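anyone seen this seq b4? input:
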Amino acid sequence: MTVPEPDLAAPEDTVVTVRIPAAVERLPTLRALAVATAVAAGFEARESGEVRDALYRIAEALLTRTVPGSAVDGRLTGRAGTVLVRLQAVTRAGPIPRHAVGAATPSLTHSAAAFRAAFDGAAGGHPTVVDLCWSRPE
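predicted toks r here
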C-alpha cells in the first residue's frame, strides 16, 4: 500500500509519535495527546476539546477493527492553527465507517481520509492508514 506521507515537520512544529496496544482501554492516551497537540498548535480550549472528541471517535472505530495483539502507531503534528494526525494499524474487519472518519468539529475546518490495503497474510489483516487534519478558520 502506498500512502503519501504527511508534509515533513518544520522545526517550529510540535510532533508526537506514539505506539499503543490496539485496545480500547488505551484511548485515553490518544485523547490526552490530541489535546496537548491542539494546544501546541494554538487552539483554544473548546477547539482542543473538539479535536479530542473527534479523534476519540475515529480511534475507537479503528481500534475495534484491529488484529488482536497488534498495535496502533500514531503521529500527531501541531503547527500554527493546524493539527495533523496519522494513525496506522492492521485491521481485520470492514472499513472504518464514513461517519467516524468524517467526525464533525463545528468550529474547525477538517479533512479526513482512510486507506485500507489488501489482506496481508504475514500481518494477519489489512494495513490501514487514517489521515486527519483540523484547522482553525482564517
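The first strand starts at residue 14 and ends at 21. The first helix runs from residue 27 to 40. kinda curious what u guys think
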